[in-house]
Amino acid sequence: MEKLLIDLIRGLEVNAYKRIPEGPTPPFARVSLLGGPAANSAQPAPGYLNKATFQVDVWAETDPEAAEVADEIRVAVLSAPREQPVEGSVFSFTTAEYPVFLPDADWPVNGRPGPRYSMTVRVSAHPAP
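User: That's the sequence. What structure does it adopt?
Assistant: Structure tokens below.
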């Protein structure tokens, strides 16, 4: 599932990673798997349906650029079930919170915590027919 989401983001011409490499060129995004549905859920999903929750972080040189890229990703995620942009899988359902400003001291810009926006994304997908 991480690869599907990373491929979707890369389709927007934004560098996206599971693990950020040394010296990435901004803007870039990191996709972190937070988990999926609980095994003891009252209504478990069918075995062919994959559900996952991700944190998507976006870094850029400026606050407006980071905000814009994060919002582009959010719109693409929410459009995915209608557009099916990832080959080999069908997005059944998606949700994406509004991106939240979360400055990052580990990626400073001009000596200040760098612009980062973060959002939670939930994706349900199944194999393409």
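Residues 8 and 85 are 7 Å apart (CA to CA).
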